Amino acid sequence: MATLPDDVVLSVEDLCVDFRLRTHILHAVEKVSFQLKRGQTLCLVGESGSGKSVTARSLLQIVDRPGQIVGGRILLGDGETVTDIAALHPDSRTMRAIRGRRIGLIFQEPMSSLSPVHTIGSQIVEAIRLHSNMDKKVARERMIELLRHVEIPNAEKMADRYTFEFSGGMRQRAMIAMALAGDPDILIADEPTTALDVTTQAEILDLIKRLQVGRGMAMLLITHDMGVVAEVADEVAVMRFGRIVEHGPVDAIYHAAMHPYTRQLLASTVKLTHHAEARQPVSALSAEAPKPVLSVRNLGKTFGLAGNTTLRAVDNANFDLYPGENLGIVGESGSGKTTLGRLILRTVEPTTGTVLYRPKDGQEIDVTSLDKKELRGFHREVRLVFQDPFASLNPRMTVKDVIGDPLIVNGLAKGKALEDRVSELMRLVGLDPMGMERYPHAFSGGQRQRIGIARALALEPRIIIADEATSALDVSIRSQILDLLLDIRQRLNLSFIFISHDISVVRYFCDRVAVMHRGRIVELGGAEQICTAPQEAYTKSLISAVPNPDPRDKRMLHRQRFIAPANA
Amino acid sequence: MLGYIFRRVLYMVPTLFGMSLISFMIIQLPPGDYLTSMIATMSDSGQAVDPAQIERLKQIYGFDDPFYLQYLKWMWGILSRGDFGWSFEWNQPVSGLIWARMGSTLVISLLSLLFVWIVALPIGIYSAVRRHSAGDHVFTFFGFIGLAVPNFILALALMYVAYKYLGLSVGGLNSPEYAEAPWSFAKVIDFLAHLWIPIIIIGASGTAALIRILRANLTDELHKPYVVTARAKGLPEYKVILKYPVRIALNPFVSAIGWVLPHLVSGVTITAIVLNLPTAGPLLFRALVSQDMYLAGSFILLLSALTLVGMLLSDLLLALLDPRIRFN
Q: Is B234 in Cβ contact with A130 (below 8 Å)?
């Protein structure tokens, strides 16, 4: 029987996981080795499909079929004896006793990782009672204590609520409480903050880190975000195509990376912490500025809620968009930024205010008073790019149909002319026109987003509204897409309204930024000014919550919290 | 919650009223009435028809009254004294006829429903969890047979087997010697011995359908993150599946109750005729053929009421089962 060094709780040696697919065997994890040490955090970094989540789930033997551990050892020590998890049967009693009791798991999707039909409290009590013989009453007290521990206010009351009554951050806290229920030695956090807003992310990371240090747990944190890694990691392992390509202390990885992939990953992250270099100064802000292409005045939308309460989704928004300008709109979920984009397009009817559009011929159009037919003309010149590159393309249409669709609908081209135009558009967004007869599923996420952009460009628009257009993409792909958009803007003299929750993306891409909070634009200014010298309290808290990809300068240590005034 | 139930029951009143009007109208749609169809039958069999008697019957039953007056009289009878009208064919009050049939109908319906659930639940769960295993394929095969074979053919086949190889008397719910006897222990045993054939036959297609629905639903739920969470807690596998995904995949089962009730009453008419079951289906069928309008109308009204009650029941159960529905 092998033994482990004193400070090592878990040692993974040459772990291999295969997925037996119909046509071939996919080696999802190949000869991966690492050690988890008491009180230390190892970050497993990689882009989607790198095998990092499969690795984490192997430690608990909960890899979905057809995944299978085919080699290597996972040694779990408890001071005296050492158990090889890889040799255990997934359904065995020993394995079940390890899950939750020795190793706790938190993962992404705070929306769906808790059962919607059981109360939060009952799910945590279940976890507590599984690994101890507490009676129900004691277990309930312990559950409430745990909820307080993860800083859920009104723990007694909230315990009897259901998941859909919790916000995303609250759910993630409840999930953490559940992972801690068995008092584990090891905490696996699989993308714990990816779906959360930056300020919530900062709080959750803060909490996890504090709990981990306080309880002396070993932590395996899985993420694609180099900024998060820099904030919390002691050691880093970089994964790509199922292998660990580089492994070392966090400082060495960030400041003396050896492997080209690590350097590339860091470069694309660091690149997004600055203003894009390729950008020309915007003429709009100079003295002889042309008239804005779009002027939004007092725009507002009020939704009626149950009872007599109303929600001001957008409250009195004012801004101008100049030709060739990128205007960013940032805010957290629920801040009204998506609604604002829809109000401009009038896919949601505004309650108050006007949107003034100036077409090429210089006249002025009041978008809010257009009839259906005129609105269609307006929609030809102002196009939308969506967030989800998977859901926004019809899987039964070829790429040619997708990109050519706006041309056909508007009767602008058909036959050979259509084909020529589609290949031209595909070349413009960096795709090979040879692929135009293929279906969207044959393309990667980044390529699909290019298809979506090509579709938006088909009608030669003057403004593109991009709603979280890069959120679903890996960081290296993200900067490629942003560069593509910058390039296209220059060539076609477009203006962008870029809606995003990601400050670094906005900073890189935009000339000016509007910060939204609870439906209001709280601050509007140059991108650099907003990001380096914010004026408003809310903006300051938002900016200070963004993780900095440099372990020597952890931003979250001197984070500023913003407490919103009640009924503001 | 109580307020909600009260409101739902209140809404049922106008719906029921509308349904009664429509069902009465539908019964009146075919040309002629009970008398014309009686005259036709009598002439066909060579009996003499006394015009004076016809005229008298017309007077008594008010066949010459305008439609709305007939309807109002009927409704008034029901509301004021629970009188659902007179069955011409049976020469009895409709209510007596219906209640006599309703008991056996309800017993068979509820037992069939129970049979469907007891068989479909475990098989559906097994099929979803062990998808594409040999067992799943076998169940799927039988499931499709159950869906595809018409019930009455299944009934004929089972009757043949039961009679030829098991030596049971088939048809009806009692052996001939007990048919008119008062209820006794021996009669109950005899009743149960007859019961299994109709229950299996009536339940067959429902079982097959529910297995398919549960399998599809559960397959979707099995890969949801909350299942991984439950597994990561250290719960044994059977508990992971039964407590979490099955609970959510159960929703369609419960919503099905609403239309299972009336379906079991009226949807198995052909089977009931083939098996000679004393249930409501064949009676309704006869009443429609002979234009026995009060009997038919009352049946349709009762079925509508059953549907509404079933819907209410399933909505309440759904709310009990799924807090997301309860809170909306």
A: yes
- Does residue A566 surpass a pLDDT of 60? no
In this prediction, residue B146 has a pLDDT band, given cuts at 50, 70 and 90, of confident
| pLDDT score of A544 more than 90 | no
Report the predicted TM-score, pTM, of the whole model to 2 decimal places. Answer: 0.78
Count the Cβ atoms, other than its own, within 10 Å of residue A90.
Answer: 16
Closest Cβ opposite residue A99 in set B224, B232, B324: B232
Q: How many residues does chain B have?
A: 328
Q: Looking at beta carbons, which residues of chain B come within 8 Å of A179?
A: 232
The pLDDT of residue B131 is above 70: yes
> What are the boundaries of each domain within chain A?
283-547
Q: Fill in the DSSP letter of residue A229.
A: H
CB contact under 8 A, B229 and A57: no
In total, the C-beta contacts within 8 angstroms joining chain A to chain B are: 80
Asked if the C-beta of A379 comes within 8 angstroms of chain B's C-beta atoms, the answer is no
Subunit contact B235:A165, Cβ cutoff 8 A:
no
3-state secondary structure of A119: strand
Give me the residue label for tokens 């490629």.
Answer: A480
Chain B residues whose CB is inside 8 A of the A105 CB are 228-229, 232
**For A306-329, what is each residue's pLDDT tens digit?**
666 778 889 889 999 988 889 999
With 0-12 CB in 10 A as exposed, 13-18 as middle and 19+ as buried, what is B73?
Answer: middle
Residues of B in contact with A131 (CB under 8 A): 234
**CB-count burial class (<10 Å; 0-12, 13-18, 19+) for B67:** exposed
**Region B71-92 average pLDDT:** 81
Split at pLDDT 50, 70, 90, the class of A563 is: low
Structural domains of chain B sorted by starting position, each given as residue range(s) with its CATH number in brackets: 18-83 (no CATH), 102-327 (1.10.3720.10)
Mean pLDDT of chain A: 86
Per-residue pLDDT tens over the stretch B16-29: 888 888 888 877 77
Which residues does residue A500 pair with via DSSP β-bridges, in sequence order?
A: A330
Contact B286, B293 (CB under 8 A): no
A283-547 CATH? 3.40.50.300
User: Is A182 in contact with B233 (Cβ distance < 8 A)?
Assistant: yes
Enumerate the residues of chain A whose CB falls inside 8 A of the CB of residue B321: 117
Confidence label for B137 from pLDDT (cuts 50, 70 and 90) = very high
